[in-house]
From TrEMBL:
Its cofactor is heme. SUPFAM superfamilies: Cytochrome P450. Gene3D superfamilies: Cytochrome P450. This is Cytochrome. The keyword Signal does not apply. GO terms for molecular function: heme binding; iron ion binding; monooxygenase activity; oxidoreductase activity, acting on paired donors, with incorporation or reduction of molecular oxygen. PROSITE patterns: CYTOCHROME_P450 (PS00086). PANTHER family: CYTOCHROME P450. Heme binds at residue 454. The keyword Manganese does not apply. InterPro entries: CYP11_CYP27_families (IPR050479), Cyt_P450 (IPR001128), Cyt_P450_CS (IPR017972), Cyt_P450_E_grp-I (IPR002401), Cyt_P450_sf (IPR036396). It comes from Spodoptera littoralis. Keywords: Heme, Iron, Metal-binding, Monooxygenase, Oxidoreductase. Pfam families: p450.
Amino acid sequence: MYKSSKIFSNRFKYVNLVSNVAKYGSDKTQNCNVRSFEEIPGPKSYPIIGTLHQYAPFIGDYDVETLDKNAWLNYRRYGSLVRETPGVNVLHVYDPEDIETVFRQDHRFPARRSHIAMYHYRMNKPDVYKTGGLLSTNGEEWWRLRSTFQKNFTSPKSVKSHIESTEIVIREFINWIKERNVSHNEDLLPYLNRLNLEVIGVVAFNERFRSFSPEEQDPTSRSSKTIDAAFGSNCGIMKLDKGFMWKIFQTPVYKRLADSQTYLEKVSTDILYNRIHYFEQPEDGDISLLGSFLKQPNVDLKDVIGVMVDILMAAIDTTAYSTSFALYHIGRNPEVQQKMFEEISTLLPTKDAKITPDILSKAIYVRACLKESLRLNPVSVGIGRLTQKDFVLRDYIIPEGTVIVTQNFVASRMPQYVKDPLKFKPERWIRDSESYENIHPFLSLPFGFGPRSCIARRLAEQNICIFLMRLIRDFNVTWMGEDLGIKTLLINKPDKPVSLSFTSRIV
């Protein structure tokens, strides 16, 4: 929650001062006795390889799939600013005050150094793509894409228009759980992947994948291959960003990325061309994102294909993982779940009652539960930025071209920023609660910040809240598995099976 305007005003004065000081080479910079980037504490760096040796198996202290553990280790060893040089200058930032300062330096077109191999792949297919897409493109081309498509993702009216179709799909899934008698001996995560494919299919493309039908549960079906391709696209991004051998020859990780992208292109192209072929104009009743894209004048179909692939990449795994962590926390905290049920049963007196925009807006405790879950288990360990100017942070000069990683996951679990940080306490986000905390607004940023924040944030939050409301209205949910950690594959994946028992509620 945001602090008072007076405090925020003081922060802006501080940031403006930092911005003024950060004129590299000016008298002000020299008068501040700023130190060089190389003086920031961090692991030992060697010529050519920098700190890449730290990620090498057996000899290094870091694992690219456990970035949270790497971050904790760095913080304990070096403090709240940590320098790395795995081929490029990297700065890890932990303190929310410093994180705010970093984001207040943002250029008009905030940049990231991410999805480099995917950008390479797409730019070598000019017959399919015009750009690298929303995830990997920077500069004016990124803003052209973002400004073209964001209204359909972000406007409250557009987002609310998808509540009915989303709830229909989720109701089908709830009934499937009952009919299938899903038990704690099964990992729920693959089913949540299918659910989110089905939801995004309807919301984004007005397309039913029928992913829970017997035919579509076959490993060779379109649904199964789409889910696998989304994961195959995401799981190697971090490794490819840190590596370089794929630029010389096609490594196994790059090949999986390329094969996965090719399949998502096929699915997207088939859906798009089928829509164009059968309908000269988009259907009047089609309120999907694709339908709105095609109504825009002079839209480039190559851009549409790129955004469709980005949607499939981002929506399936990300929402499924975030939902899994929310169920983990709710299933382990029966007193929280009881408060959720009391709120939900008041808003939905019967199991058949429909969720409307007004009802969803009143589900304050449900939204607080999601916010608390995203504090403890955000989508990723932090947010990346590629600096586009020199600036000073804590008396260190941060050069243009530095990759900054904000370590929000670790910071959100620190007692100096949150009371009882490991406790799942949704009340800390509710203003009229006795347990409300005035948490720094830059501490928990699960969807990013500013114009580069997740374009589908409102949709993702809405979809998860609808799912939680429907599930808790019908079932008492109990966590039956082990303590759940994360595996950092670009986005944070549960590192163990999602094991839940479902007990039907009578009322």
